[in-house]
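Re-run requested by the PI after the first attempt was lost when the workstation crashed. Everything re-entered from the original request form. Ligand of interest: iron/sulfur cluster.
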Amino acid sequence: MEKILRQKAKELLESGAVNVVIGYGWNRSKTRTTPVFITDPAQADTLVWNPLCVNNLSLYLTRKFKEIKALGKPAIVAKGCDIRNIVVLITEGQFKREDVFIIGMTCNGVVYKQELWKGELTANIMPTKCHNCDVRNPHMTDFVVGEKTNFTPPEVPTGMVFDKIKELDSKPQSERWDFWIKEFSKCVKCYACRQVCSLCYCERCITEKNMPQWIETSAHPRGNLSWNLTRAMHLVGRCTFCGECERACPVNIPLNLINQKMIGVVKESFDFKSGYDEKTHPPMIVFSPDDKENFIK
Amino acid sequence: MADKILKKAGLGALIESVTGKGGRFVAPTTDSRQVVFKKVKSAEEVATDYILARNSFKEFLFPQTEVVAEFTMSKDSVDMKGVEVYAPQTVVFGARPCEAASLAGMRALFTWDFIDEFYTKREENTVVVTVACTKGDDACFCTTVNLSPESTEGTDVYLREAADSYIVQAVTEKGKKFVETHAAVFSEGNAKAEPLFMPEKIANIDIAKVSARLKDKTHYDDKVWARLTSKCIGCGACTFVCPTCRCFDIVDEGTAFEGERRKNWDSCQYDTFTLHASGHNPREHQHQRWRNRFMCKFHFYPEKFSSKGCVGCGRCIRVCPVRLDITEVMEEFSK
Ligand code: SF4
Ligand code: SF4
Ligand code: SF4
Ligand code: SF4
Ligand code: SF4
């Protein structure tokens, strides 16, 4: 797959169809992948593809990255799950479908965190999103790398996100509250979760509004709770469960539980899952006369 | 001559001895599937199989958030009241030699043009007990910044691991006093130290050259910055786990009538860090912010305080969600 990927990247850059290819490359010791921005066709051979390609590179298409935008029209190496974020960005008017060339990678899963890699990909070291992935064969692409795949992981470990949500849901409210207060109390207010999320593209986040101060910046329980809850609310109906926020959180707060829980609620209430169709607007930004709630009518 | 020994089985007694006298005992412990420095109460909580704790122990000297004053306001007056510095006797156990070496730079900053007692008092009451490394990973690069698992800079008591004990070396006066105070848990004996993990020095890096390059301002607009660091997403995680990063922000929080003045960690990697009220931002692009972090480590600190800005612990590399590796930039600037 790497060979085809490199060839395509080279071709796109040489023909001038795109000016930059956003993809994955190796670090110096070839133990970890890292995002690369290739502008020189001769460098296309540094692109790599393997189960360590965890980053959701759609982040670099957002308006926060002016320098990358300045490089010109991008092509992006994207897994199906990453493409879901691109879909959301398009439905939210961040750019147009034709503004980006999508090199979709067929995919049998990636590792949850790069440090777990011991040379072999097993279901145990995959994130939940890969266990029940429905976009292995990427759904919105300009070019696909890799053969069609029907992969299903043989033995999915228990105790992953869905089990944990079930377990939490079965507890009384006070215990759930205690659970989250304890988790959020670890938050160091670094905002890595926001920075890594391609759907957190606001140039001025509510945490930075201090006239008046909406969210206290101190990493104390009250400030943390308002931060984590506000962020969750701003992603309802939009979050695709790509898992980048949980991966980036330096104190390992299980943010995926919140993400998946919200996805469940939105699915139930609006029969909607984000990131599949760039022509359908997410429920939080549309008005529909058929809405089952009637407060708005 | 017999060595001073701390039996591993005697760690619990040491913890009791410290906490019994009202002190806090901070050690690496497993929390949320990772090893972090935390206050512990018993030996069972102390992790033994780890490379470095994910966080640095700086938060026990310089907390993430701290009240430095209280205020009340009325129509025509503001009352400001100082607060007592919280500086309990503290033992940091299980630090690594690299991170212990960060204290000199911390102290230099907090005593530079103003003595920040919130830091100094706490540091004075802290004993750093270092356990030399017997394992490491490919992010460790202490030997490249002229440190090693044998370094004792910043360490008060230096421990080498043996099969069922630690071989104890009191490095500073504070360390000697600590060993005397808790004499009952130490013994005399002979033990064979396990071999140390020595990270290989990264061949193409010369930190003297890096610093010299940074001193010459022509690097400022070098394309290299954007090329190597524009992938940085500005999450600040690297600065939060770094033992030498110590930028903070002062905020007032509360109601219109009363509140607290707090000192919170801040990060030069945030776009708001240098944002002026006018809207102008002198470090508009992420690579410029990253350049600042790098200059802080290899130019400002060595130049201004003759101290190390980077101790090679590799935390920033491990935690970075885009795997931006500071040694790759050091390599580029060694050319
Ligand atoms: S969720 Fe699907 S497309 Fe995404 S990494 Fe996992 S298997 Fe690949
Ligand atoms: S999983 Fe996290 S990073 Fe991904 S879209 Fe949802 S909130 Fe953003
Ligand atoms: S990444 Fe984690 S620690 Fe940082 S702000 Fe988000 S939840 Fe808090
Ligand atoms: S810059 Fe990185 S390697 Fe250097 S001291 Fe800080 S965290 Fe450790
Ligand atoms: S951890 Fe990495 S991405 Fe985050 S601010 Fe530091 S260098 Fe940038």
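Saved to the shared folder this time. The pocket of iron/sulfur cluster (ligand 4) is lined by residues B 242-244, 297, 310-316, 326 (CB under 6 Å).
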